[in-house]
Amino acid sequence: xxxxxxxxxxxxxxxxxxxxxxxxxxxxxxxxxxxxxxxxxxxxxxxxxxxxxxxxxxxxxxxxxxxxxxxxxxx
Length: 75
Hints:
The chain is mainly alpha-helical. The mean pLDDT is about 90. It has 4 helices and no strands. The longest helix is centred in the middle third of the chain and has 22 residues, at about 25-50.
């Protein structure tokens, strides 16, 4: 997936227009959205993993995802 802002748009569909404007105008917001996308993808990867550390990784990424969601909504 090439659109690094896909998951944030999917998570907040009612804020699509605002998100689009902020992505275009605010590099810090754009970076947060890209970080969010990376975390969602990593959480999905570890959720399917059979590695011993997978559960801990999923929990870590979920915590980061929640924090980023709160930060993004505040903007």
